[in-house]
Every structure is written in C-alpha cells, then in structure tokens.
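[Q] Does anyone have a clean structure-token version of this?
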Amino acid sequence: MTERYVTMPVLEGFAAWLRSDEKSCNTVEKYVRDARIFAAYAGEREITKELVIDYKRELIERQYAPRSINSMLAALNSLLTFLGWTDCRVRTLRLQRQIYCPEERELSREEYVRLVQAARKRGDRRMEMVLQTLCGTGIRVSELPYITVEAVRRGQAEVRLKGKTRQVFLVRELQRQLLRYIEERGLRTGSVFVTCTGRPLSRSNIWRAMKRLCALAGVDERKVFPHNLRHLFARIFYRLERDIAKLADVLGHSSINTTRIYVVTTGQEHRRQMEHMHLIL
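[A] Here you go.
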C-alpha cells in the first residue's frame, strides 16, 4: 500500500483541486489553512484513521468551539477525499440547532446606526457607505466588488458566487447615496469600494476599519465584523416578511437550514416571548 503523508506538494495539489471545483477564494484559503494545521499536527507520521481520530480528540480537548471543530473537520475530510483516502474520514460533531444566539454577539440596529454615525464623524466616507451597503443589501463582504458603478446606476447588482447568480436590489436611498459617493470620488467604472491603488477592498481592510469605529461608537468589538451586518439584515427582513424561503433566496442560500441560523432571536428576546405565554399560575 502507498504510504500516506501530507506534504507541501500535496497541499498545493489540494488548493488546485479546490479551485478546479470552482470553490470561492475564501473557501480555498480556509480549507488549505485548516489542512496545514492538520499537516503540522501529523508531522512525519503516516496518515491513518486512528491519527485523524486523535486529531479530532485533540481539537475537542483544546476546547475549540464545536462549530469551529466541524469546520476544520470538513476541510480535512475534503483533503482526504482529494487524496482518495476516504477510509480515514471522520464524522463531525453532532450539534443541536441553537434556538437563540448569545446577546454579546448580536449587533442591534441601534449599534449599527452608531457605527455609521461614527464613520461619518471620523470623516471616513468610504466606510460610512460600506457599512450601509453591506447592511442595506445583506450581501457577503466577498460580494462587495459586485457593487460597481454600472450596478449602482441600474439600481441592482448581479452577484456571482459559488456557481450561482442572483440579483441584488439597491433601495432608492442607498442608490442615491452611492451615486453621490461615486460622483465625489470621480469614479467612472468598476467596483465602487476600492483602495487608493484602485483594487477592491479586502475583507481584512474592512474588518480593521470597522474595529477602529468601535470605541467612538460605543459598541463592543466582539459584535463588530462584516458578517454581522448580513445577520442584522436577515433578522430585520424576516421580522417584516416572515418568509424564510424568500429570505434564503435573497441571501443566496442553497438550504433553508442555513438561513435559520441567521434569524434566531437573542436569549433576552426568547425569554420575553416565554414570559408572554403566561403559563405559570
């Protein structure tokens, strides 16, 4: 039997395989990063089912969050599939669906408003518009480059990601503000949100800029990251529409089960709903 080791050429081949399968850049980066972590753990040891199980146990003992463990195991199982070592694949942890989300992680509408106002006070016009565009459309931060000058003028963007294409509408007020921003910046074509060199803003650029607003806005840093704006959009949309299938389409989800994660209430709201039941005599 051929000896099984995870080497640098193996990881390079894995990355190429993921790209050929049309995985997004972010997915490729994450899967390869997680594969490297496993490779470092394995060292010069041959890959066996027992070793993979030990690695899974190690992640649990290090007290990684269950969802993080499952994410890392998904990447590892993908690597093992690529190598044809399917007999070494392991099961992910079984998780009970969360019925409410931790309050310390949920960004409220009021806190979002304070972040936008903080960006305005700092004179950071670009960040002011990035925040409103992400939250006003519900797009992923990786989809922001699809907000182009042409899309703003049309009032809708065509987003292509993970092999799917969907239309994203820009409400009139957002379109109006973006048109003014485009005029201020002298933009003629291409992505609206770019660096000083003309390249689309990266996730890390946006993440750092958002963190800089936290103190001025009086918002807990733990709540402030780009994807939380997408969650806020989803919760508000669902409260208005109560149509999870429509929300899944708007967000670009293939499964409604993914969308359910976005609309869970906070513990405080869950408690308030239970109080209103008046079942204790």
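[Q] Thanks! Anything notable?
[A] The radius of gyration is 22 Å.
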